[in-house]
Structures are given as C-alpha cells and as structure tokens.
Amino acid sequence: MFQFFTLMLKNLRRNILRTSLTALCSMLLVLVVTGVWSVLDFIDRQTEEKANDFKVLVTEKNKAPSRLPRAYVSSLREGAARGPDDVKPEDYMTWAFYGGTLDPNKMTRENFLFLIACEPEKAPTMMDELDQLNAADTARLQDAIAKMKKQANAVIIGPEQLKLMNKKVGERFTVNGLIFKDLNLEFEIVDTFPDAAQRYGQTSLMNLDYLLQGIDEYEAKTKKKIANGADPIAFVMLKVKNKEDYEKLSAQIVNSPLYNSPAVRCESAGSAVSTFLESWQTIFWGMRWLLAPAILGTLSLVIAVAISISVRERRKEIAVMKVLGFTPGHVLTMVLGEALLIGLISGLLSAGGTYLLVNKVLGGIPFPIAWFQRFFIPTNALWWGVAIGAGTSVLGSFLPAWNARGVRVADVFSKVA
Amino acid sequence: MAADEEIVRVRNVHKYFTRGSERVDVLQDLSLNVPEGEFLALMGPSGSGKTTLLNLIAGLDVPSEGEIWVGNDRISAMSESQLATWRTRNVGFIFQFYHLLPVLTAYENVELPLLLLPLSSADRKQRVMTALELVELSSRLHHRPGQLSGGQQQRVGIARAIVTDPTLIVADEPTGDLDSRSADEILKLLATLQHELQKTIIMVTHDPKAAERASRTLHLEKGRLVVDTRAPQLK
Ligand SMILES: Nc1ncnc2c1ncn2[C@@H]1O[C@H](COP(=O)(O)OP(=O)(O)OP(=O)(O)O)[C@@H](O)[C@H]1O
Ligand SMILES: [Mg+2]
User: Fold this and answer.
1) Predicted pLDDT of residue B229
2) Distance CA B122, CA B114 (A)
3) What pLDDT does A49 receive?
4) I need a labelling partner for A75 at 20 to 30 A (CA). Which of A104, A155, B23, B44 fits?
C-alpha cells in the first residue's frame, strides 16, 4: 500500500538527524563486512584455483638468476621420464627472458622493453588467468598466437606497456639487446592482451625460437659468442595432475643423470599455497567467524537502539493508530518496514559505493601478499550489502517492533500508566 | 423502547485492573443502553471509571465480566485484531488532546483511517474533503498539526472520527483542553453531527455546560451509574 509506505518515509524523515546517523553507521558497518567478505571470497577463489594447479618450475639449482642450457629443454618437457612407470607432465612451457631498449641513445623506462620468450601456443593453458577468459577474448588470443606461429618476429604486448611505448598494434620496432647484450631483434606487434587479463597489462610475449635463432645467427655472422647464448633458458614449467605426481616428478628430475652441470631443482606453486595458508589460517578464521559476526551484531544493535528510541517516542501515536483501526500486524509491519528501509538503502549505497570506488575509480586495490594480484570487490558484494542491511535491520528492529505491536491502547491513555 | 433500536447494549459489565497483587474494581455490574441517534454525556468525578467505560464501548479494551454489544456485534468476545478491524468501520474516536500524527498534514490525518478500507483514491479524496468541509477546515488541508490552533486541531480530529462514517462516535473530554469559545464551537459541531447526520455520540465530560448539549446525561460514581438525566427534548 503506497500510502502506508509514504507514512513510513515520513516517520523516518521526522528525525532526520537520527535517521541519517543510523544510516551512516549502517553504511560504515556494511562497508566493513562487505570488505571482509570480499577479501575472504577473493582468497577462497584464488586458493581453490591454485590448490589443484600443480605447476612445477624447473630452475637451476644453485644460481639466481637461473640459466639452463638449451640441451635440457627437450628432456625436461618430458619430465625426464624414461621408463613406462615414470610420470609424464600433462603440459609444459619453456621460459627465457629477452629485453633491451628501443632507443640506445635514450635509455629511459619508457624505452625499455622486457619480453617473455616462450612457445606462444602454451600461453592459454600454462599462464594463470588466460584460461579463464570469455569466448571472445579466447578467440582473439588464439588468433594472435596463430599469427605468432606464422611470423617469427610477431609479439603480443600488454595494453599498459603498449601505451608506455606509445605504439600501436601493427607497428614494427627494434630492440637493442641488454639482456643478451648486442643482440638486436626486430619485432612486429600483432596484438595486445585482452583487458580482462588484468595482470598482463605490462607483459610481452615473443617466440622462443626467434630468440634462439637470433642468437645463432648473430654468433655465425660475427664469429663472436653472446654472453649466456648457450644457456639462455630461465626455467621450464611443467603441469601435473596432483600432489603425488608432483612429488614423483620432482624426484625423477632431481635424480636424473641428465642434469648434472648445472644441477636443477623443482618448485611448485601448489606448495607455496599451502605454506601460505597455514600461516594465515588463524587470521582468516578469525575474520570469518569472529570479526564479521561481531560487526553484524553491532549493526543489529545500532538499529535496535535507534528503532527502540523512535518507538518509545511514538507510543502515543502508535496507540492512536490502533484506535483508528490499525491492527497489531499493521504496527509491526510499519516499524519493521521503517528499519528495513534504512537497512536496504544504506546497504545498497554502501556496497554499491564501494564497488564503484574500488573497481571503477581505483581499478582494484593492490594486494601485495603471496601470489595475489589486484583485489576487486565481487559483483556478489552488491547483494551481500543489501542482504546484510536488510537482515540486520529486521533482526535488530524485531524486538522494538514487537513491543510496538503490543502497545495497549487503554494503558497508554489511562492516567495511571 | 424496543431492544433492536438500542445501538449500544452494555450488560452486567465488571471491569477490574490488577496492580501487582491488588485488584482494583473500576466498573461494577454496570448495564447501559444507548439508542441509535442519541447524544449521551457521561459525567462523574475523576477516577469514577468514565474513560474505562468509554474504552470498553469503543472496543479499545474488553470487560472482565459481562457483555457489550454494538449493533449486531458482540465486541466483548472479540480478539485484539478483530476489534481493530471492527473499530475501523464502527467507531470514530475523539481525544481530549486531539492526537493527530505530527508528521501528517490535516488532509493526511483525516485520510489515515480510510487507508484501512478498500477505497479508490478518488473515493478517499471525496470523503476527506467532505469531512473537512463539514468541520470548516477546507482552507487548511496542507497544514500540519503544529501549524493549527487547538480548536482547529480538534476539528481535524472530529473530521478524522467521522470520515469512515462510523456507527458510533465516542469523545473523551473533547473540550477539556480548549478555551470556552473553541469548546463551544466543538460542541455545536457535535450537536450538528447528531441532528443532521443522525450520529450516535457518547461523550465524557466534566463540564456541565457541555453536558447540556447532550440529549441525556449519565452520572458515574465509583464504577456505578447513579443518575440518569433524560433531557426533555428527546422524544
Ligand atoms: N490500564 C489501567 N490499569 C490500571 N488501572 C487503571 C487503568 N485504567 C484506569 N485505571 C484505574 O481505574 C480507575 C478509573 O479510571 P478512569 O480513567 O476510567 O477514570 P475517569 O473517570 O476517566 O477519570 P478522569 O475524569 O480523571 O479522566 C482509576 O482509579 C484508574 O487508576
Ligand atoms: Mg478519563
């Protein structure tokens, strides 16, 4: 009933100060809870993804940066498997790094380009987040990779990096080598990473073969050796099904006679996750089961107090409404409705405001713990905010509303009461 | 006078309140008939039970013993919710201190009880305007109670009481808070309701001059009716 609704609004409007203070307090608390839940949700999702993602990095054992000989690559791709009982990796990707300046006379940050040299066709399955793109972005990435397969000097450059370089897709440029000094390579930009792949804004991909071939050609032409030209590989990344396979594979590789000089070691992203989680578990548990409920409790209490006061002030009015024929049910609905209005509106404003601010204005919050990338408020948070606001307001106002419902007319107007 | 012309029938009603372990008898074996169209005044010393009786007849409270009938409804047997619904259509209540909702305008205050009835907004508007015209406040529609004088507020209260066209109008010291001129206007208005709209009115008052407007005056003392003064003009 529309008139009934406007009556609630008018009741809320009568003490603007109290209503806005209550709303402000609700907004603040909804903000904190939404924030806490967003963080927990974010960690949950990232952890879930990582826990079943046994990627193994094979690096040089005792040196950083790691340098592996080209000769290791083909056997490492097989996980050094020899017998039928040996574990074979499900997938692999080889990483080397090339970089240099676009202008040898002006060695500024904008002119420096750093590239990952790899098998481009492995990017969609082996690089985080690229396997979670939507259909359109996936198709576009596959297109770009196909171009790289056809054209050795093709590169994909992240949108932020592209802007920094002030170049466009389709342009060509030359890098004057600093990693692999004196090796100058020419490139053509075939595409950029989709915006959805946030973390690759400054990443550039090139063909590993183009790098290796470039080294060979340079050495053949100049009869000079390029530094690290023989062991240009940084690491080989392997994917296995589960923890057992990971452990077997590690043993297999570390104990293999193929890799003596230099020796190699295996590291898994999965193990990093569990170590990380163990140390933070108590904090997450506390956030989830102590902090969030405590805030929700406080919020209910704030609303309970505000509504109690307003009910006590209006005992006479409520009695008058009852005299006019409003039933106890009507009165209960009116008081609950007033609280619900405050809760819904502040919940929506708070969650919506945070969502817009964090995601659209700030573009996410950097989250410099472990492997986490930028932190975003999930779309679900909009519902959480509304639900928290509505839930706590109903919870908090129920008792005062029940009291209002039970206001006895004869008592209110009798002189003894 | 035949029983079916009696709009209000109070039969052997007892009302007591318990305060702690103590029982306070307020009304004792009280019976009363009010014929349709009567303007009845209830008088008596403070604490004699006038308000208590009025509240029982208006369905704001239920008797401890005995029966109360209004029209064909035995209101003494109704639940709180049933009474509320019954009041909407059958009782218009006028308070000593007007008790208008401060957040609503005069118009909205009068409209409030109509929200409980299945009426179109056009119907509501028409009824509100008629009621406010009757109390001569058509020019103050959008004033809030705080912007009206006591007499004006009470007229809005009367408009609110009659807007649902109730069977019964009850008033508890409606002039108790007004100066004599405003009080006179209110009493004239109540008399008009009786004469021209054939309303049944029960009014509690301490003021003998107010009681003179009524067609009959009853005196209550310690919870019992003692004098029944029938005004000569009643047929
Ligand atoms: N809700 C209640 N609980 C307990 N006692 C009550 C209640 N209502 C009324 N009483 C008592 O009943 C008695 C009659 O009260 P009531 O209000 O009916 O008197 P009254 O005749 O209207 O008096 P006044 O002229 O002062 O308004 C008083 O003694 C009062 O204390
Ligand atoms: Mg009284």
Assistant:
1) 63
2) 12
3) 59
4) A155
Q: What percent of chain A has pLDDT over 70?
A: 93
Using a 10 angstrom Cβ sphere, with 0-12 exposed, 13-18 middle and 19 or more buried, the burial of residue A353 is middle
In the numeric block, which tokens belong to residue B6? 């009696």
Strand pairing category for A235-240 and A154-157: unpaired
Residue A117, strand partner residues: A96, A206
Q: Going by CA atoms, what residue is nearest to atom 28 of ligand 1?
A: B47
Q: How far apart are CA B108 and CA B207, in angstroms?
A: 31
A205, A50, A233, A228: which is closest to A116 by C-alpha? Answer: A205
Amino acid at B12: N
Give B131-151 pLDDT, tens digit per residue.
999 999 999 999 999 999 999
CB B204 within 8 A of CB B172: yes
**B38-62+79-215 classified as CATH 3.30.70.2190:** no
Length of chain B: 235
Tell me if the bond preceding B118 is cis, omega within 30° of 0.
no
Considering CB atoms only, which of B84, B160, B164 is closest to A326?
B84
Strands (E) located in A27-110: 54-60, 91-101
Chain B interface includes A82 (CB < 8 A):
no
Helix axes A16-51, A292-313, angle to 10 degrees: 160
**For residue A50, what is the enclosing H or E element?**
helix A16-51
Sign of CA dihedral B28, B33, B36, B37: negative
| Pairing, β B39-43 against β A54-60 | unpaired
pLDDT at B2: 44
Any idea what the Cα angle at residue B87 is, between residues B81 and B91, rounded to 5°? 165
Measuring from atom 3 of ligand 1, which residue has the nearest CA? B17
pTM of the model: 0.70
CA A23 to chain centre: 30
Question: Complex ipTM, two decimals?
Answer: 0.91
Instruction: Give the integer Cα–Cα distance in Å for A8 and A10.
Output: 5
- Beta strands at A154-157 and A184-192: parallel, antiparallel or unpaired: parallel
- If you average pLDDT over residues A76-105, what whole number do you get? 91
Tokens of A274: 């569990």
- To which H or E segment does residue A37 belong? helix A16-51
Q: How many CB atoms lie within 10 A of CB A152?
A: 16
Could you give the residue ranges of the DSSP H alpha helices within A169-291?
208-222, 243-254, 269-286
Tell which atom from ligand 1 comes closest to the C-alpha of B54.
18
Q: Is the peptide bond before A257 cis (omega within 30 degrees of 0)?
A: no
Domain chopping of chain B, boundaries: 38-62+79-215
CB contact under 8 A, A324 and B112: yes
Q: Helices then strands (H, E): number in chain B?
A: 7, 10
Which region among A79-83, A219-223, B153-157 has the lowest average model confidence (pLDDT)?
A79-83
Q: With CB atoms and an 8 Å threshold, state whether B88 touches A325.
A: yes
- The strand ranges marked E within A39-164 are 54-60, 91-101, 112-118, 154-157
As a 3-state breakdown, chain B gives helix, strand, coil percent values, each rounded to 5, of 40, 30, 30
State how far the Cα of A158 lies from the Cα of A198, in Å rounded to an integer: 9
How far apart are alpha carbons A73 and A236 in whole angstroms? 7
Give the mutation candidate from B16, B50, B105, B115 for the A interface (greatest A CB count, under 10 A).
Answer: B115
